[in-house]
Amino acid sequence: AWFLAGSFGNLAPITRYCKIPKNMAILFPILEKEDSFAEDIDLKTEVELRLRAKEFMDRVRKLHAVVDGTKLEGLYKYRVQSSVFDLNFPTNCIYDVQPGFTRAVCDGYWVFLRPLSSGHHEIQFSGEVAMKSYDIVTDQFIDDPLYAHMKDHIDKNVSFVLDITYNITVE
Question: Quick check: pTM over 0.70?
């Protein structure tokens, strides 16, 4: 299978171009959350790790995927949480963590496509996750201590948003 990557969230849509060999299935995450003990140092057990990823993904507000102009339906059926796995963070990682092995889990919504025909194709996917809880009684957003390290970003954006388009050539 050929893997198409998401992003760390974006303020503007992202467009990518790639070539894929013929007869390759395509796997991509619409939205996903990976958590590890290296990143979430407050967590002590694998149960807590799984719950942290789940709680984030429980806040998904929008999912959208289109392949060659055809909207994919029923995307909420494609949520998967991985088993807890070993993750090796390299030196000079883009995350602010110590290099080395840790335990991690991933929870999210994924699409797995059969191989596309030779030629040009477009895959677009997007989604949104609420970064704050909402109290319907007080009609206010609630600050979540889980995301205190991102408070300035969350106060400005309220949601994690992702919008990616792949222009693909199958050779």
Answer: yes
